[in-house]
Each structure stands twice: as C-alpha cells, then as structure tokens.
C-alpha cells in the first residue's frame, strides 16, 4: 500500500489548504482577515452532531457529512454569492472524484459517498449537516457583529430563513438573543 | 426546549473560541501567527476517518472522537509541552462536564461519551483518532518547514515515534518524502 | 449628477474589496496571509508603464489597462488555476458591464473600453500590461522565496515562459539574478 | 540594455515595499493591521481616472500621476501627520531622483516627470489625482467605521474639506450617505 | 564567561517568545489577533514607573518588577481566567528558577529577586507594578472597545475594582472618561 | 491632581501606539507583519538589565532608560535607515517634551531625564541600554532567519560591530552560534 500511503499523505496536504483559504463573504462586510474554511468546517461538524442527536438522527454520520461539505474548496477557493451570475457552479462530486483518485479504494469510496449524500440532501443526516452550515454562519455573523462589524444583518437573515430542522431553528432563535459570552457567566 | 436551545447556542459560541485560540507550540519555532485549534481539529477529524477506514474501524466514529479531542481548550487554551513540569494536566472529562451541563440530555451524553472514549484510548477508533492527531501535526510541521521555518525537526520526530496504527505509520512515512504540492502535479 | 455621484461612490466601495481579497495561488505554496489583489494591481500598473515606455508604447495607457485588469475579482474572488477544469471562466466584460451600470456615461465607457482592450489583447499597450501582470507575479514569487517559501519555482517558471515583449523578458531575466535588496546597496 | 534591465528589476523590487509598508495614520485610531500603501495607491489611481473623466480631463494621465504619488515611501515609510512639527518634510522629487537613477533614460524621465507634475499640482490631472488621494482616504475611513472603529470622524472631515474638483466633492458627499454595500443590493 | 554568555543569549531567545504569545483573554471577546505578552509588558512597566513616581516610590524599581511579571509565560503561555478551576496555578518562582539556572550568578539573582518581590507583593514598588498591570489592561480594553469590540465591560470593571494605589485609581477613573486620541488634540 | 490623572491616562493611550507601530526595517527584508516597537522595547529593557548587572552598572536604571528609548515613535513612526539622507533626524528630547507637557511634574521630569540620559549616552547605564538595543535587533534577526527570511545578514553584521560593552559583545557572539531553541533542550 505504499502508493496508497502516498495518496493519503498527498490528500492530507491538499486538505491543509482549507486551513489557509479564507471564507470570502466576510471580505464584503469589511473583515480583513476572516476565518478559514477549516475553522468554519470544524464548528459545522460539531453543530451537525448536536442538531442530529436532538433530531433523533445519527450524530456521527451528520458530523461526518459536514466534515467534507466544503472540502472541494482546495481547488476552487470559497466562491462568494456575487459570483453566481457569472459562472456555472462547479460540481462538488466531480472535484471530489479527482481529489480522491489516488486514494486506496476504501478511503476513496468513503469520501465520495459522504459528498454524494450531502449534495443529494435527502437523508436526515444531510439535512442536519446543511442546517449546521447555516447555524455556524449565523454564530460567526453574531461574533463579527460583536467585534464591531456593522453590516452582518444580511448574513444573519439569510441563515435564519433557510433552516429545515426544528432544532436548527430553535438554536438560531436562541443565538440572536443570548450573549456570545453567556457560557462564561455560568 | 427553549432552555436547551440557549444551552446549545451558548455551547456553539464557546466552541467558536477554538477558531481564535492558536496552537502554542509553533510560537516556539518562530511562527508568529500559527494555525488555530479549529484548523488542527478539522484535518485531524478527516485524517482519523481515512486512517480508520483503512484499519477496518468505523471512520465516522473515529472522526467524531477527533472532533472533540481538543474542545476543552476553550477554557484552558493550548498548553505547550514546556508547561508540563509546572502544573497538573487539567482533566478533560471534568472540563467537558462543565461545558455541557447546560445542554439537553442527549447532547450532553453524546459529547461526554466521545471525550471519555478518546481519553480512555482503548477502542480502535480512539487509537485512530490519536494517530490522526499526530499525523496532522506532522503534516503541519512539514508545511511550516516548506514555508521557511527551520527548526521543525523535533515536531516531525515526536509525531513519527508515537504512532500506533499501521496506516498512521505509513502515511507519516510517505508525508516526509513527497512534496506537499504533489496533489497539484497529477 | 447626484445619482451619478452615488454610482461613483458605490463603485469606489466595490473596488475597496480588492484591498481585502487575497491572491489565492500563494495559499497553495503555504503563504498564510498573502498579498491582496490591490497590492498586485498597483505594481502591475507601475511595471506596465515602465515596460511600455521602453517598448515605445504609451505608458499611461498601458498602466491604465493594468489598473482594471483584475477589477472584476470584487465579484468572483481570485480564482486559482486549479479551478479551471471545473468551471467556465467568468467573462470579464460581462462583470464589468454590471459593475459600471450605475456610473455616469463617461466613466462607464472609460472602464468598459479599458477592460475590453486588455481582454482583446491586441494593442501594444495591452501586451505590455499583460507582461507586467506576469513580471509582477515573478517579483512576488522571488520575494516570497526570499522570505522562506520553498516551492515558488513553478510560479517563476510559468511567468518567464509567458512573456511577449523584449523588455518584459529582460526584466524577468534580471530579476532572477539580482538581490531584491540591490536598490539599498547603491 | 542588460544594465537597464537590472535597474528596472531592482526598481520593481523597491516598489514591492509599498505592498508591506502600512498607512500609519490608522494605527492612531486603533487599527492593528491597516491597509498598505499599495492598496491605497491602487484605488487612488482608479478614482483619479473616474474623477478626471467626469471633469473633462485626461483620465489615464490622472491615474498615472496617482500611481506614483506615494512611491517615495519605500525609503521613508508613511510619515504620520503628528510627525510634522519635528522634521522637514522630505522632498519627493529628490527621493524619486535617487530611486530612478539606475533606470534607462526613458523610464527615468517618465517617473520623474510624473512626480514633478503631481507635486507642482497645477495641471487639472494633478488636481484630480490629489482629490482622489483624499476621496480614497474618505472611503477607507468609512469602511473602517463600518468595521467598528469609533474615531474616524477626524479623517472623514479632513478629507471632505480639502477637495478641489466638483466631482471629488460630490463623490465625497455621496460616500458618507450610502452604504458601502450598496453595490451588492442592486 | 563564555558559558555565561550562552546562557544569557539563550535566555534572550526564550524571552523572545513573549513577542509571539498572545494575551488569551481577548480571544474570549472576539479579538482574533490580540496583543502579545511583550506589548502588554512594555506599557505595564512604563505605567508602573509613572504610578510609582507619583506615589513617592522608586520608579525604576517598580518598572523593573513589571518587566518580569509575566516572563514565566514563555513556558506556560498566558492562562485565561477560565482555566482556574481546572489546574493549580503554576508557581512563578519555580519557573523563574528554571529559566535562570544557566545564567551567570548576578543575572540569576537579579531576575529571581525581582520575581520574588513582585509575587510577595508587599513592597510599595510591587504594589505599583501590580496596579500598572491592571491599568494597562484597562487601557487596552478601552482601545479594543474603540476599535469596535462590544463586550469589554467585564475587563474594565475587574481592572477598576482591583487597584491599591491612589494614583492607579485616579488614572483608571480618567481613562474611562477621556478619548484615547486626546493626546493628538492638544 | 484630576488634571494630572487625565494627563497620565492620555499619555498611557499615546504609549499604546507603540503596540501597533511596526519596526520598519523588517519590511525591507520581506517580513510582512513584523514585530511592534513595544515588543522590541520590552526585550531591550530586559537585556539592558542583564548586560548592566554583568557590567557592574545599575540594572534597574539601564532597563528604565531602555524603556523610553523609542517612545517618541508614537509621533513619528519608526523611521527606516533609508530615510536618513532625506530628512533631519527628529530630536527625541523635543518630542518627549511635548509628549510629557500634560503630566504632573514628577512624572514629566522622570521621563525627560531618562530620555536625556539615554540620548546623551555617557553614563554606563545608557551604554548598556544602547547595547541592548543592538543585541535585541540581533536576536530578532536570527529569529527571522530561522523563520525563513534570507537576507538578515546586514542586520546581524550592523548589530555586532556597534557594541560597546564586553557583555554585549559576548552575548552577541554566543547568539550567532547557539540555537534559538537551546533553552528548551535543557
């Protein structure tokens, strides 16, 4: 499996790009050095698990889908919404296919199936992961607002109206009302 | 569950700290603005899944354990190795217990069990997650070396000698030999 | 012209994004916080003038074309080369048309004509601006190399083989041989 | 011209410093990592062209003057206003003379004439470039205000009262009234 | 003394870590890239001198104690308050003993005595240095508030109620009322 | 003393600028985000004490002089060496006089005397502080070299040939030979 090991190591280096690629939407509201895709991904996966367990779904699976949901951005970067009218959206499954072609079979199938399930968006776990993606953005918008950024309202609103689970909606509702420092006061 | 929703949102904000807390060891070798704990965590979880599926273990579970393995650092920061002689290591289970006490029951149990399984370190998935933690550090050390940092050797060595799975060892071996840009050349 | 003034101010704010959008290719070689599109654009415009005046072309016009050559990236970000297989390249003229539609007529025509001339790439000034775009990247690659980044060779090579003016080629040849600090030694 | 090529490459490296030198005034209001001189220069040149075309002046020439207006700061840095009582202001023409002495004749004359025309400040293009310098600072002040910085008022006021073209004044007036995100709403 | 010189140089490199270690509390309120321990230390030492001279104490001694008050954080990092319940506070004297063991005798004694006097906290100079530590945090909290950070109130309050000198109290009182830019207006 | 308290608080805010002003020379060698003046100042003061105690001078006084040696840079920024031919060097005593004019008498005299003694440069403590300024730069140059920066040689050389105490020279000699991580290996 030495070729397989090289494939895995090379894929590990490729995933490292997510630690450097910035989430581009925040540049629009004036954040100079916004969060990386990796930072967004970690909390999305954690939130996916929390939402899923409350919804009676499989939390490890929901977290797992979230873990790969933006992994194609090593090749395209994080495309802002304003790019939509000017390009066809890249197909995540196709990028994933290319990214994983040097992997051993089990690894390759595992990643491809996760991306496929997330993009298809039918399973309850996929829906929890998608809600987590929105809730994560909502929390970050509130954190930037509390760091001084004035025009995060559009991000908060778009996150709130796009949620499909009861838990996702309730967490979003709570997030806009409590202090981001509430956990310290307890 | 509105109290539960507040607990979940508050925990979400607490986890946000991992996007800002820096991995302290890299300051020692001269990296001014090193990766965040969240960035390390995302790739650790991805690597845990890859290692686990190759080892015949449950990849979603291994990734899930990795996802929470440093989540206590919201409260303590990332303690460098040089701190070891001067303090008792904080008990991760105790911090997790405090972090999750405002969560709804299912969420609380889920996080606590994941931290407990990782810390106990007996299950094959826990061992894959622990290897992923080391391999992630190894990849990052190589990435910093390629960005100019001279004294990453100690980090590379310590990662390599602490691996417990065959896949972890092989990926580490491959990583020190290939180019971090090998994925672009294909 | 108060509507025109609002259009100009709004366009000014949109161009401000170029001060925050990062040049994405450098993330691939491990630069965490690379130059902005605006930083690249300024030196490209300066180099375009220098190349043009040596080539007997109109330096102000060449600089002017360079000034708008990446201005569409406010809407798309800086797409890395690795994205090419997965999307149709956005049409710069179409984005420019949208960006300038709220401008007074003379401003609108001015920007559109500059983008059109650059993209058509036939005039000598457009060719000088395009060479400047490459030489700027070459200088930056050397500057990153001297700051420790190991794998800039691919960027240096691609810049050098894509030059169309005699001056561009000679400057590139000189750049790889002198010290970036040569100006201080004089 | 191989000596000329070295001179041009060396000058290109010197201009690269403008990508790193920070605009020092923003440190006073608490911005830790403010814009570079290059970032300011790019938008100043773009605004100079827009103001000039509306004023019936030569837009490429106005942009060209703006492109070199702070290029002397490679040697002095960006001197804050608070330094004024303690030093004689360095002579931009003298610095430019030194910076360009290794350039081929046409390049040397081109840069020196641009700096001279800007500093003399008599031509309509020079006045458009100078207004663009102020309007750029005004837009940046508003962008920092919207990112949370409280005390940008002095910068906004000083920019507004120092404008000499009708277009400059109208754009400034519009800028303080519209949202920096107005271009996205269209 | 060549061994002594190596000890001094090595200690100098260790102290360099304080230029990279971030003050962790600010991460809690959302500051992504907060001040370093070194930055905090410089102003603490300056304030200690100012407070001491007004209190009739020895200003050079008070500044000197402040200069070493966080120097142990090279080994532990800056532990946030939220870590308190989970660990025994490291003993600064013990860390200092280890840090200084390779130093020539006079240097060793000098640093150890300074840390001991500060930690004992009985001398008037130690009390001035401790007040300076709080006032410095207060000034920084106000500076972050003016840069947009919303939730600095807890830091301001905790600083104000923990002051032991009359001068410390009066400076704190003044700081919350004046503008951080008052020095420019004069 | 309420006016005095306002003066002290305002001076404290002014000194805060040193936490943001960057040391400009490092931009020349390609460091994008170099150390602040405050970071340099802290280690200079610590080194001044160490050098002084070995030289038989008063360590607290030497550290105290170092603490104010660049405090005038709140008003001028850090002027790079390349600026020297183009301006008269600002008079530190005159800036200090202005900075301290709103302070209570004892504070005012204290700061002015420290700056005067340092600038006069006759006392043994002033000479130790001046050597510390050079040794600090030397250590930082080595730290940047180990972080990948290629062209720090000129900085190392200029520091080494400008030292006036035996201890300063020996520490500099040792610094270029040992590893910056030697303190961790013990």
- Oligomer description: homohexamer
Summarize the largest interface: chains and residue counts: A-B, 67 and 67 residues
By DSSP (H or I, 4+ residues per run), the number of helices of chain A equals 11
Helix content of chain A: 55-70%
**Strand percentage of chain A, roughly?**
under 5%
Measured between the Cα atoms of the first and last residue of chain A, the distance is 51 Å
Task: Count structural domains of chain A.
Answer: 1
| Poorly predicted runs of chain A | none
Q: Order of SSEs of chain A, N→C?
A: HHHHHHHHHHH
Structural class of chain A: mainly alpha
Number of strands of chain A: 0
Describe this structure in words.
The structure is a homohexamer of 186-residue chains. In chain A, α4 packs across α8. In chain A, 65% of the residues lie in helices and 0% in strands. The first copy, chain A, has helices spanning 2-16, 25-28, 37-55, 59-67, 73-76, 92-99, 105-120, 124-146, 153-160, 166-175, 182-185. Chain A has 186 residues and is an all-alpha fold. Chain A starts with a helix and ends with a helix. The radius of gyration of chain A is 17 Å and the shape is globular. The interface between A and B is large, with 67 and 67 residues. Chains A, B, C, D, E, F: Residues 33-147 form the HD/PDEase domain. Chains A, B, C, D, E, F: Its EC number is 3.1.3.89.
Task: Sum up the structure in keywords.
homohexamer, 186 residues, mainly alpha, Hypothetical protein af1432, 65% helix, 0% strand
